[in-house]
Amino acid sequence: MNVSVIIPAAGLGTRMGREKSGVSRKQFMLLDGAPILIHTIRKFLRCPSVKEIVIALRGEDLEWARGLVHQEHPAKPVRFVEGGDSRQASVENALATLDPGTELVAVHDAVRPFIDPEIVERVIAEAAVSGAAIVGVVPVDTVKQMHKKDKIKSTLPREHLVMAQTPQVFRFELLKEAFASARADQFTGTDEASLVERLERVDVSVVQGSDRNIKLTKPGDMDLAHLYLSLEREGESA
Q: Does domain 3-237 have CATH number 3.90.550.10?
C-alpha cells in the first residue's frame, strides 16, 4: 500500500512559552537530546505501511531540519516542503507534492512523539477500508456544554464523544477534494477530519488511541514527555 505521512511543523508554538521552554517552537524543543520532531519522525520510520514522510516547515528551518534528519540515516524517504501560515495551508502545500499514485495520506501532529506504531498500522488499515479514519479516545471527564461564558447548559453523554488525536488517515483523492472545497468556501477546520466531514461523502471511523499519545503544547507537558520516554525505553529493553 502506498501511504504518505504529512507532518505539519511550521507552527510557532506560542502556547509553549519562550521564557520557560527556551525556544519559541515546541516541535524543536529537546527531549533527551533530540528535537521532539525527530522523536515523532522515528515512530513513522518504524511503520511498515509508511512509504514516505513529508514535513512542512517554515522556510528558514528547512536546511537545519534536513541536516537533523540526515543524521538519522532514515531507511525510507523523508522530504521537506515549505509550510504555510496555518496548519491547513501547510498540509495543503504538502498534498500538492505527493505522487499521483499515492493511495492513503496520514496527517500527524509534529508534537505527538508517543504515537504507537501499532496504532498507526491499525488506523491505516481502517482507512484503507472505510476511506477515512482517525485515532481518538473517549473522554474520561464529564463534558459540559455552556450557553454563556460561565453558565452550563447541559451535560453531554460521553458515549457519543471522542477526543480526536492523530494520525488522521484518508484516501488521497478524498482528502484533496476536502481541501479544495474548504479553500473554495474559505472554511478553516480544526483538523483534517473536519474538512472531510463537510463533504458528507464517507463516515469517518475512529480507531482507539492511547492516553500517552499526548500533544505537547504547554511547558508542563514536558514533564510527562520525559516520563513517557523513560517508560517506552523500559518496555523496549524488557
A: yes
φ, ψ of residue 225 to 5 degrees: the values are: -60, -45
DSSP 159: G
pTM (predicted TM-score):
0.93
Amino acid at 128: A
* Structural element, H or E, at residue 107: strand 104-107
One-letter amino acid of 87 = R
> Got the DSSP string for 76-138?
S-EEEEE--SSHHHHHHHHHTTS-TT--EEEE--TT-TT--HHHHHHHHHHHHHHSEEEEEE-
Q: What's the Cα-to-Cα distance from 53 to each of 41, 153, 232, rounded to whole Å?
A: 8, 44, 23
pLDDT in tens, 13-72: 544 544 443 444 689 999 999 999 999 999 999 999 999 999 999 999 999 999 999 999
